[in-house]
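F.,

This is the one I mentioned.
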């Protein structure tokens, strides 16, 4: 919440734009003339600007550009400081720095002169010393190994290929408790000594230039091959923004799947567990089909090996060739192996044999300063597939895209427009949260005094001190602003919807008045017959369990009940019974099941319930999902999400539509209901809920 409030404050003060937003997990902003970029991590706001060295300011034009960059940074920071003062926030002067060439922030040590970014040496050196001492001692607890592994994982995030050195340190922890004392093997001690020596070289060089080419690799049973096509430098730099930043799977394929893949009989969606397959980038696919590639290396395999091992070797060979031709560079490599791309993106594989291959490439990657990124190319469009089948490299099958000429000159408006026509939002593809969501205003009511002020800042509203006219209850959702208010104790007062025919108070039960349903206090025969098909254990009710008990009066329906907090509260208020539904309680309670839905709809039509509550799952409706899978333009889900998220979004949309239709049935019968979801949830922005709000309001 604190970080979101900080971002919202900066966005509302116009300190940074979406194109200048820098995040830890997103892709970096494009280079601009002024090169102003900024980001927030928790309470640390950092702005970066690329400047010309003072000794190179030899012309009036360069001096004017440098002064403009300096003025831009100063004006933006003045806006931020003004926002701090406006909201009564005090800066920590001891942590602040201005116009520094070297600084430590966000857990990194950045040297603007050399262009090197590394973990702070004040932490790495003590860690290396401790690791060396543990290795020399030869014994330690599993808990200490776990701590060391976590620390080195943090250090090696700056050069992920070094992650492949973490192998035995993880293996030694498996199947043991944290308090187990372990006598380390010679191999594990050697690994710890190696880790202590590699800490200082976990460095990223921001000055590494993009290699003016794109490689593609392939490695079936015959052998491995690398093909290459030239690229203009601006496009090579832009293509890195559309490369993989997170792999999906890093284990070797099972023997049967490996055989099927080596014989071209394995579809991409079958290569990995369901929902984990990679999504190809339309830009990578377009360039694979429109550029002329040439073979630069191929080699026949001397002996049989696992196909994933060959694919990793082909990828690493492309890196080695780049190291010879252009050291200190950033190279692009396309592959149709999802396992390979997952392993090289993560820096290590979950299978030891993959780590052997990756760790063997550490000297090349570190000494030559090669920074490779991968892109997924389906086998059908992978030009490296031809040399491994003793065929000449294919000619282009498509013309160069319309955006090619402008992009080669550093202008990407046509590229962005092309992505939009494909249903892809460039801002969302960057992986950064959308700042426009931080500018939206929603109503905040009834928060504790300790939270109200922060929440008001987050939503861009003025904080109202205690004693002001603030409604009771929790944060009122977006939908609530359209709806009438009900007296305290009304089930509908929790921020959802209420029927036009009125609603009964929960306190009616506790006072002995069982007529919560506005029309009747006895279930119709149809409702009794329907509810009798359910076992008595499905109902939460007062008193002891009785297998012969069957409901005869209307009760409550609690959907997506979770820990049954609402159901238990209703029972304490005197509800005769509460019927709960949650998938975690059994597959027969799956609200995606058509038969279950029809049963509940029939029960509502039969007036079996006095009230309905629902707390739909937030798996895809949460604004915390990164990268976003819903945007203001695509509230039902973007088109470029991963397969795993597509399933969650599809299920979420189905839950949303059905729940709205069920509650509309209840409304027509005068049955009160309420719905719970976070204040900023995308659920409230779905068209069906906005229509329901207008219908009721």
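My design for it:
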């Amino acid at each position: 919440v604190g970080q979101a409030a900080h971002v919202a404050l900066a966005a509302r003060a116009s300190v940074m734009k979406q194109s200048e937003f820098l995040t830890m997990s997103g892709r970096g902003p494009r280079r601009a003339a002024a090169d102003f970029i900024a980001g927030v991590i928790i309470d640390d706001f950092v702005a970066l600007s690329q400047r010309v060295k003072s000794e190179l300011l030899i012309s009036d034009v360069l001096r004017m550009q440098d002064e403009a960059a300096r003025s831009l940074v100063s004006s933006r920071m003045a806006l931020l400081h003004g926002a701090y003062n406006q909201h009564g926030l005090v800066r920590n002067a001891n942590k602040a720095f201005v116009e520094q060439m070297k600084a430590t922030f966000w857990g990194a040590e950045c040297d603007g002169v050399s262009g090197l970014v590394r973990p702070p040496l004040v932490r790495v050196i003590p860690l290396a010393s401790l690791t060396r001492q543990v290795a020399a001692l030869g014994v330690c607890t599993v808990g200490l190994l776990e701590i060391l592994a976590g620390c080195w994982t943090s250090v090696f995030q700056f050069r992920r290929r070094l992650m492949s050195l973490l192998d035995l340190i993880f293996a030694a922890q498996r199947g043991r408790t944290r308090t187990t004392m372990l006598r380390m093997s010679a191999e594990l001690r050697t690994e710890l000594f190696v880790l202590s020596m590699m800490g200082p070289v976990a460095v990223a060089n921001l000055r590494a230039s993009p290699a003016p080419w794109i490689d593609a690799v392939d490695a079936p049973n015959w052998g491995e091959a690398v093909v290459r096509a030239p690229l203009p430098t601006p496009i090579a730099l832009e293509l890195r923004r559309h490369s993989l930043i997170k792999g999906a799977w890093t284990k070797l394929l099972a023997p049967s799947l490996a055989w099927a893949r080596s014989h071209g009989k394995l579809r991409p969606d079958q290569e990995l567990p369901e929902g984990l397959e990679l999504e190809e980038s339309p830009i990578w696919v377009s360039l694979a089909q429109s550029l002329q590639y040439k073979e630069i290396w191929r080699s026949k395999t001397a002996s049989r090996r696992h196909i994933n091992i060959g694919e990793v070797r082909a990828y690493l060979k492309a890196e080695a060739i780049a190291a010879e031709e252009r050291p200190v560079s950033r190279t692009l490599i396309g592959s149709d192996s999802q396992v390979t791309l997952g392993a090289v993106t993560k820096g290590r594989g979950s299978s030891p044999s993959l780590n052997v291959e990756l760790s063997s490439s550490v000297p090349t990657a570190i000494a030559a300063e090669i920074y490779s990124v991968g892109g997924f190319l389906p086998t059908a469009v992978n030009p490296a597939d031809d040399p491994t089948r003793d065929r000449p490299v294919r000619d282009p099958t498509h013309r160069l895209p319309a955006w090619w000429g402008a992009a080669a000159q550093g202008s990407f408006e046509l590229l962005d427009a092309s992505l939009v026509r494909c249903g892809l939002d460039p801002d969302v593809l960057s992986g950064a949260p959308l700042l426009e969501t931080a500018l939206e205003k929603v109503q905040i009511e009834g928060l504790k005094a300790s939270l109200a002020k922060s929440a008001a800042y987050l939503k861009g509203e003025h904080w109202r001190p205690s004693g002001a006219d603030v409604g009771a209850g929790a944060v009122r959702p977006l939908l609530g602003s359209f709806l009438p208010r009900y007296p305290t104790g009304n089930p509908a007062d929790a921020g959802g919807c209420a029927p036009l025919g009125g609603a009964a108070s929960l306190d009616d039960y506790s006072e002995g008045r069982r007529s919560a349903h506005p029309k009747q206090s006895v279930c119709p025969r149809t409702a009794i017959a329907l509810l009798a098909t359910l076992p008595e254990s499905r109902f939460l009710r007062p008193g002891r369990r009785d297998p012969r008990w069957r409901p005869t009066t209307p009760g409550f329906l609690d959907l997506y009940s979770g820990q049954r907090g609402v159901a238990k509260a209703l029972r304490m208020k005197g509800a005769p019974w509460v019927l709960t539904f949650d998938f975690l309680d059994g597959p027969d309670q799956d609200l995606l099941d058509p038969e279950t839905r029809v049963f509940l709809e029939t029960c509502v039509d039969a007036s079996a319930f006095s009230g309905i509550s629902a707390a739909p799952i937030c798996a895809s409706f949460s604004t915390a999902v990164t990268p976003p899978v819903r945007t203001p333009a695509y509230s039902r889900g973007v088109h470029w999400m991963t397969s795993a998220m597509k399933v969650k979004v599809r299920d979420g949309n189905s839950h949303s539509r059905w729940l709205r239709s069920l509650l509309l049935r209840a409304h027509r019968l005068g049955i009160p209901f309420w719905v719970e979801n976070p204040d900023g949830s995308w659920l409230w922005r779905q068209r069906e809920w906005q229509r329901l709000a207008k219908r009721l309001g």
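Residues 441-520 have pLDDT under 50 and may be disordered.

Talk soon.
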